[in-house]
Amino acid sequence: MTEHQMIVLSVIVSGLLVLLVRIVYVLPTQRRPRQTVLRLEPTDERLMVFLGSGGHTGEMIRLLNQLPLENVKWRTYVISIGDANSAKRIEELESGRRGQVDYVFVKRARNVGESLMSSVHSTTSSFVSIARQLASLRKLPTVLLLNGPGTCVPIAYVLFACKCAGLCSTRILYVESLARVSKLSMSGLLLRPIADRVLVQWPQLTSKYTGVEYSGILV
């Protein structure tokens, strides 16, 4: 191996080591706070919420009704393209409230009944759509609130990548669906390693999965 190749290899290995250390530092798994309620911190100036359509949107609306939204200056709602019902419901919720409210529309990661092969393409397309939309924001959120389904995963991972790059310090909060009694959803399993808090609504899940919190019925 030539000296030039050794230098290039050393730079690549050093870069990968730095990236690995950064990822380990950002990962919240070992330092999740043990809290009893879902709450917004005084530093949470910019809230981003994903509305997952159908029952997921219904649960999120009930969850948002319990939070002091007006204390958050900027609120951004991410909605799947074509989900007019979620857009209507969140507009009704925000009607008359103070603060800056924005709506972002992204491609779905997977449609109901979609085949595995087709879902790979749609998920990739969703990642690109989400990355573009987030790049267009003036500032990234200080807190991201999710409750599924699949499209919330690309949103969380794009923001986690931004955290690793030092572009933001977004807290990722995931609330598992009330319907998940005995096991986490696929979204919950995928987000558990990177979420700052994973809240479940049935106590038996805390003995099955490490790092999850039970705070009673939230929705």
TrEMBL record:
Topology within the bilayer: Single-pass membrane protein
Keywords: Endoplasmic reticulum, Membrane, Transmembrane, Transmembrane helix
Predominant localisation class: endoplasmic reticulum
GO cellular component: nuclear membrane; UDP-N-acetylglucosamine transferase complex
GO function terms (MF aspect): N-acetylglucosaminyldiphosphodolichol N-acetylglucosaminyltransferase activity
Subcellular locations according to the entry: Endoplasmic reticulum membrane; Nucleus membrane
Domain of life: Eukaryota
GO terms of biological process kind: dolichol-linked oligosaccharide biosynthetic process
InterPro entries per the UniProt record, alphabetical: Oligosacch_biosynth_Alg14
Transmembrane spans: 6-25
Function field: Involved in protein N-glycosylation. Essential for the second step of the dolichol-linked oligosaccharide pathway. Anchors the catalytic subunit ALG13 to the ER.
Subunit organization: Heterodimer with ALG13 to form a functional enzyme.
Family: Belongs to the ALG14 family.
Name this protein carries in UniProt: UDP-N-acetylglucosamine transferase subunit ALG14
Protein's organism: Diutina rugosa
Lineage: Eukaryota, Fungi, Dikarya, Ascomycota, Saccharomycotina
